[in-house]
Amino acid sequence: MRGAMTVIERDVDAMLIPSGDKVLLPAGSELTVVQTLGGNVTVQDPYGQLFRIDEKNAEVLGADYAAKAKVPAEEAPPGEFHEEQVWEQLRTVYDPEIPVNIVELGLVYTCKATPLEEGGQRVDIEMTLTAPGCGMGQVLVEDVRSKVSALPGVKEAHVELVWEPQWDQSRMTDVARLQLGWM
Asked: Where is the signal peptide (predicted)?
């Protein structure tokens, strides 16, 4: 969803895409919203550079974008845990450059929940990136970790970035291909 150009009224912390470098976008910056998926906002400046603005700062783009950036956590009945809840949370994590979630892109290789002796679940996830040199890797890993950790019943969330097997477009689901107009 591409938005209109907005001039921000205050400085805002952002992340440069694809390097992952932290930057400060100064008040007065002209930004166009490129996507509002997964709780974060991807914006583009007049020179074509992309930036990610975290959900907590989306209000700098206006109330409409702050509301769109909010991603409700899956509610589970107390005491019940289902692995599908983890997969649903993973579907709320988006590559900031591609408007498709990481599950449909085929970036999640394994997801396994194990009951802990003291109660709750340990969730282990192995995932990769579309390109090994992507600077957003640790950002996506932290997105996954925080969203899975927020689920009721999850006591530990371990996310490992792996490179074998190497990702390629054959790992994408038909849903992803349709979203990207490749089918």
From this structure: none
Average pLDDT, the chain: 89
pLDDT tens-place string over residues 26-81? 999 999 999 888 888 999 999 999 999 988 898 998 877 766 655 554 444 555 78
Domain boundaries, the chain: 5-69, 83-179
- 3-state secondary structure string across the chain: CCCCEEECCCCEEEEEECCCCEEEECCCCEEEEEEEECCEEEEECCCCCEEEECHHHHHHHCHHHHHHHCCCCCCCCCCCCCHHHHHHHHCCCECCCCCCECCCCCCEEEEEEEECCCCCEEEEEEECCCCCCCCCHHHHHHHHHHHHHCCCCEEEEEEEECCCCCCCHHHCCHHHHHHCCCC
What CATH architecture applies to the domain 5-69? Roll (2.30)
pTM: 0.78
Whether the domain at 5-69 and the domain at 83-179 fall into the same CATH topology: no
